[in-house]
Design a protein that fits this description.
The protein is α/β, with parallel strands linked by helices. The protein is built from 16 helices and 9 strands. It has one domain: TIM Barrel, CATH 3.20.20.
Amino acid sequence: MRRFTILLLLTVTGVFAADSTRLARLLDRAVIVDLHDDTTQMILDEGYNLAERHTFGQVDIPRMRAGHVSAIFMSIFVDAGLYTPAEAVRRSLAEIDAVRRETARHPNDLLLATTADEILAARERGRMTILMGIEGGHAIDSDLSILRTYFNLGARYMTLTHSSPTPWADSSGKPPAHNGLTDFGKQVVREMNRLGMMVDISHVADKTFYDALEVSSAPVIASHSSTRALAAAPRNMTDEMLRALARKNGVVHINFFEGFLDDGFGKRLDDLKTEQAAQNKIEAAMPKFGDRARGAAQVRKLNRQRIAKLGRIPLSRLLDHFDHAIKVAGIDHVGLGSDFDGVDDQLPQGMEDISKIPNLVAGLMDRGYSDAEILKVLGGNTLRVMREVEAVAKRP
């Protein structure tokens, strides 16, 4: 059955059927680690059961198995535009609790992990691992004790900002307010180093990126960012940034969202103002806490209508971003940061959910990458940077 599934995938990517044996062997060997998934909100708001294969969303246990995934980082995300800092802390804690409880509910399939070694040990036992990352430094409410609490509860990276600045760091989503990191922002980075928490620079302003690189004593990651040379989104990374990240021994994890892959798609999306206004109205009316399922279902309906108008860009465009990042930063500095369940279903053809990861692998094969190179991109680079961050934390 696996060989038949792989052959179907090959028709999407254009890889010759003769490569199916190589693909199957590569998937069996790979430790596939996805650095950014937003399934958390559905777990908390809608009672989304990871054990069921759903007809909506992009991540669940059956589809993770089909995608040969070893580990995913669940995003702990709170919209800074809708929640006060204190409310953001409360909701972040609720999301962490939801991830921990949902993981514990499926012990035959899932284990909560915090280290690279735990990912590998679980894989040996036939389990997949769930890890957590805080998406947006506003969630610590400018308090290092809250940062430490998140770490103690299992969070292993924090994105320094989201789409708005914090009181201590500038975001790519708004004009600068601090000229990068403030003195307190630099304390945040140093404390993350001390704890063994990866510093994530996705979403930050360019100056914040360079400040974080200068201050951090450990490698820095971009958990879900694509390349600005191919798509001009300000939260994508320039070639200069990619080279600087590589010099720091970090990893950029390529985002699968069509708006960060193709400028033309972004312009077409901007034309759908009616749908976006309707979505904003629904989201604003949803309760901040408690059952948010009705609003979420309404948003998904709008997403289906939007995709019907826009279509999907080809998988080749996603592969172009992998190619460019590898060319500029090097094969040791690129990984996966899908943003599944966080991008309104706007994903390339052949990459509609996490079960389609083999299509990406086949596409990398088709572009001439060796098995060793592909294994690095799928998870080897991420495991390496996790270990290096852990090692910095253990220094006296």
